[in-house]
């Protein structure tokens, strides 16, 4: 997901995973029933990347979007596999295919309104989707642009006007013409780019400052980088929405908090912090939350994403496959895991796709004893490539202590090869936008990716299809443009059996890793501590393993 990437916005996380609830003991625990009323507090290190659904595309913000926006379909609201099932949202069903899967038709439900009271029509859905082609606005989810047929010169509704390949026969019907058959388009329309926007609105930064809600909540106060308050949207009708519980009266985000401060507040649980949720605890706090009292408030699980280091194949010497293979061999993944808190917070990654992806193959293309790196094998490859004297490497990271620690571990692992790693720190809120701009990319970046829905189609094509490299909002950070990989992606995309396609993507993982465009580092875990008054909480496999915001609430609204 983001560019499915691993993000740290609202809950310091990204896309799929998280299937457990570690709550134990005599208290009610975070999974207890949530009641109507009250305000859920959210303590966060970094602000959301974007409030505009055409721009944001990381697990934390995708989770948040479901509170204020609706799409044609969406993921379910439940722990485990039930949560990742695609279900109708604005639409009456998950779509009807015709023309061999190249045409998809959706019908809107009755009783749908924006926060303004204006009805949500098919024209508004079309307008919202068309924004994905705008070169400035459409930097989020890439699937609409990749799959929907559009003129090559089309640049969104503000610059190019109408998009003829999306039609609206009436106010309730919307029809999409695709470039080629796509069997899982009903999942694609759950992406944020399929959020309705009133026709004619949303140009520039409008929605980043003031979203137009279609979901159960609307923004009442927004101080960029500091605070965000949601209140009920009285134009939302629960009868039209089988997914969102909307138990709290509102949500209050506080951004810019130091991770250590967040942990201290969550452990103490005083005052309104008893009504709070936050991201995964920092490594330094893991030992402190092992008491029986705090374990009653913990939730843990795999986040379903892969944290990796992308290697920019357009820059020398990373255009040489032996150099990239050498780096894969040299990185000490044990020290990288130790940097994020050890085995309690991460498993070591060997393949691109994480264990949660269907069809994924468990293999290790660059093995070393205990995953501690094989410096001699790496040195041999660098000598063959003509780089035995080493070279400099600029590594982009987010401005977070965990990222800094991971970068230092990589820096130390590559030092014996005379590879001098310069760490370039970028503000967390703008990180993905910066590294997704090809002109601003450096040699390497630590990031991550999570599936946008449980299919291999949402993992390898966004990261490695060279035909989809874009100047902005680029998810192919390695800028890999390999004809063999591109051809295989095309071949798999034409399969009508989703299970067969996922199996084929598992094999493609091996083909890509032979080219070593990335270094898989970790399959991270979440370990969350929630307030004592939190109810209805579970970890959602579709949103970075984070707490599903559409179901969480308070056990006692009067506290």
TrEMBL record:
Alphabetical UniProt keywords: Signal
SUPFAM superfamilies from the UniProt entry: Periplasmic binding protein-like II
Signal peptide (UniProt feature, chain positions): 1-17
Keyword Signal in record: yes
GO biological process: peptide transport
Stretches assigned to the Solute-binding protein family domain: 85-469
Entry GO terms, CC: ATP-binding cassette (ABC) transporter complex; periplasmic space
Gene Ontology molecular function: any one: peptide transmembrane transporter activity
Record bears the keyword Signal: yes
Protein name: ABC transporter substrate-binding protein
Native organism: Kribbella albertanoniae
Lineage: Bacteria, Bacillati, Actinomycetota, Actinomycetes, Propionibacteriales
């Amino acid at each position: 997901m983001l560019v499915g990437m691993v993000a740290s916005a609202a809950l310091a996380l990204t896309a799929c995973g998280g299937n457990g609830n570690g709550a134990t003991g005599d208290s009610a625990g975070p999974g207890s029933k949530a009641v109507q009323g009250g305000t859920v507090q959210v303590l966060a290190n970094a602000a959301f990347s974007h409030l505009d659904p055409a721009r944001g595309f990381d697990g934390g913000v995708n989770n948040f979007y479901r509170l204020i926006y609706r799409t044609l379909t969406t993921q379910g609201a439940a722990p485990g596999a039930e949560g990742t099932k695609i279900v109708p949202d604005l639409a009456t069903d998950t779509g009807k295919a015709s023309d061999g899967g190249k045409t998809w038709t959706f019908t809107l439900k009755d009783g749908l309104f924006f926060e303004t009271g204006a009805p949500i029509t098919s024209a508004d859905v079309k307008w919202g989707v068309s924004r994905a082609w705008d070169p400035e606005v459409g930097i989020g989810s890439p699937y609409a642009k990749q799959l929907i047929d559009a003129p090559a010169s089309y640049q969104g509704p503000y610059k190019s006007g109408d998009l003829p390949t999306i039609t609206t026969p009436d106010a309730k019907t919307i029809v999409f013409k695709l470039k080629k058959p796509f069997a899982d388009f009903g999942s694609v329309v759950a992406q944020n780019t399929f959020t309705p926007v009133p026709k004619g609105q949303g140009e520039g930064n409008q929605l980043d400052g003031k979203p137009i809600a279609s979901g159960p909540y609307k923004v009442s106060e927004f101080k960029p980088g500091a605070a965000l308050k949601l209140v009920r949207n009285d134009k939302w009708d629960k009868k039209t929405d089988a997914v969102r519980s909307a138990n709290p009266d509102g949500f209050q985000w506080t951004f810019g908090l130091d991770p250590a401060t967040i942990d201290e507040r969550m452990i103490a649980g005083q005052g309104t912090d008893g009504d709070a949720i936050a991201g995964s605890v920092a490594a330094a706090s893991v030992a402190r939350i092992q008491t029986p009292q705090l374990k009653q408030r913990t939730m843990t699980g795999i986040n379903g994403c892969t944290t990796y280091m992308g290697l920019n194949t357009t820059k020398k010497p990373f255009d040489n496959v032996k150099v990239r293979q050498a780096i894969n061999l040299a990185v000490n993944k044990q020290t990288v895991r130790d940097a994020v808190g050890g085995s309690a917070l991460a498993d070591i990654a060997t393949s691109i796709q994480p264990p949660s992806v269907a069809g994924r193959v468990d293999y290790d293309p660059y093995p070393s004893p205990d995953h501690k790196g094989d410096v001699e094998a790496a040195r041999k490859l660098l000598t063959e490539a003509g780089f035995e004297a080493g070279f400099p490497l600029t590594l982009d990271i987010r401005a977070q202590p965990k990222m800094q620690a991971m970068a230092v571990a990589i820096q130390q692992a590559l030092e014996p090869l005379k590879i001098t790693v310069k760490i370039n720190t970028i503000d967390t809120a703008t990180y993905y936008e910066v590294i997704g701009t090809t002109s601003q990319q450096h040699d390497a970046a630590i990031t991550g990716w999570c599936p946008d829905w449980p299919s291999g189609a949402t993992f390898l094509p966004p990261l490695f299809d060279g035909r989809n490299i874009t100047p902005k909002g680029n998810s192919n950070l390695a800028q890999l443009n390999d004809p063999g990989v591109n051809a295989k992606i095309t071949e798999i995309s034409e399969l009508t059996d989703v299970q067969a396609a996922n199996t084929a993507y598992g094999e493609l993982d091996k083909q890509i890793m032979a080219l070593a465009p990335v270094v898989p580092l970790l399959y991270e875990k979440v370990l969350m501590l929630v307030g004592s008054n939190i109810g209805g909480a579970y970890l959602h496999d579709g949103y970075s393993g984070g707490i599903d915001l559409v179901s969480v609430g308070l056990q006692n609204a009067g506290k």
